[in-house]
Amino acid sequence: MQPLSGPGAHNLSDRPPSGEKNTASDTQPLSPAQRTMLEKLVVKIMALSPAKSAEIWASLRHDLGATDGSELRARHFQPAELLLQQRLSQAQQNHASRQLLQQLTELLPQGNNRQAVSDFIRQQFGHTVLSQLSHQQLQQVLSQLQSGSLTIPHPQQSAVSDRPLLPAEHQNLQQQVTRLSAATGESPAKIWQSLFNLVGVKTNDPLPARHFQLLSQYLQVKTALSAQHAPTLNNLLTVLKQPADRQEQQLLLDYCQTRFHCAANTPLTQAQINEAVTHLFARRLEKAGVTPTIHNETPQPQLNPLIANVALPLQAALGKRGWALVALVLVLVIVLMLVL
To answer: Containing H/E element for 83?
Structure first.
């Protein structure tokens, strides 16, 4: 805590208020009303800063020139009140700045806000250190972010590579899997399996490094949404590190309306929001040339070899959704052949 300072603060004990000469009343101790007034100001300062009462009083005596340990006198009251008012104003401004900084800090992890704020500060103020901004500058940044006036850049993508994940990249995903498992109660093995399914890779094969960023974002989004009691589609769009474009937003809205009969602000279950997240990232992987493997957990009926020889090529051509229809048609055909 910095000592109190102000114009003419030092040796104020030698100066009577208003330039008048010392009188007998000026040498009297502070009256109860005067001391109560100063104590109220000290309490307000303590409520807004980490300063202690003894520290504030010691700093006040120092600035008034009363360093001999003597009690403050009536002549000290007006300059003491002025100094405490100045210190209170500074404490109030610092407190308000801390609140603004806390609001900004809570918004930075959402989407790609951190990069957007960093770019704005660099352009407007010439540096990127948030803590160095004045109260007015913090207010400007927060207002721009809350109003959506900042340009949110897309995160930089790493160079495409066919190499397997590096140990550090694998460890990064492992840590995120562990956090997601702790948040949802889902087993790490099941989460890993969902990652392999998402990128269309067999469990025993290495994950390609070119999918690291998307897999990392996928885990981050699921972890962020797991902390929300009733997440919505809007919540999903908010936590995306790589913001969804208009096509993806419409894709998600259509998907949720078709699957769950809900709007963008309708609360979803964790299973529903996870399905929507998987659908979005599967689409992004498709754009990257990947065919995700989303396994159907419902067991499929076993067919005899004669049916399977015909069914499997048709299944590959029609996809999983045509499996039931293909199987039914083939069964009918075999039955008719046996009857005839």
So the answer is: helix 77-107
Q: What is the token pair recorded at 281? A: 């990232």
Q: Which two tokens stand for residue 64?
A: 């008034």
Say how far residue 285 (Cα) sits from the centre of its chain: 24
Q: Name the region of 69 (left: φ>0; alpha: ψ -120 to 50; beta: rest).
A: left
Neighbours of 275 (CB within 10 A): 17
Bridge partner residues of 208 (DSSP): 164
Q: Report pLDDT digits (tens) over 272-326.
A: 898 999 988 888 888 766 555 554 333 334 344 444 344 434 444 444 445 566 5
Distance CA 60, CA 121 (A): 37
Longest dimension (CA), the chain: 130
What single-letter amino acid sits at 67? T
Judge contact between 196 and 239, C-beta under 8 A.
Answer: no
DSSP letter string, 204-216: TSPPBGGGHHHHH
Query: Identity (one letter) of the amino acid at 90?
Result: Q
Give pairs for 249-252: CB < 8 Å, separation 24+: 251/279, 251/280, 251/283, 252/276, 252/279, 252/280
User: What pLDDT is attached to residue 178?
Assistant: 92
Q: Which helix (H) or strand (E) holds 175?
A: helix 167-184
Which amino acid appears at position 172 of this protein?
N
Structure token digits, residue 68 = 């001999």
Say how far apart CA 10 and CA 207 lie, in whole Å.
Answer: 70
The amino acid present at 317, given as its one-letter code, is A
pLDDT-derived band at 332 (thresholds 50, 70, 90) equals confident
CA–CA separation, 92 and 104 (whole Å): 19
Q: How many CB atoms lie within 10 A of CB 185?
A: 8
Specify whether the CB–CB gap between 200 and 295 falls below 8 A: no
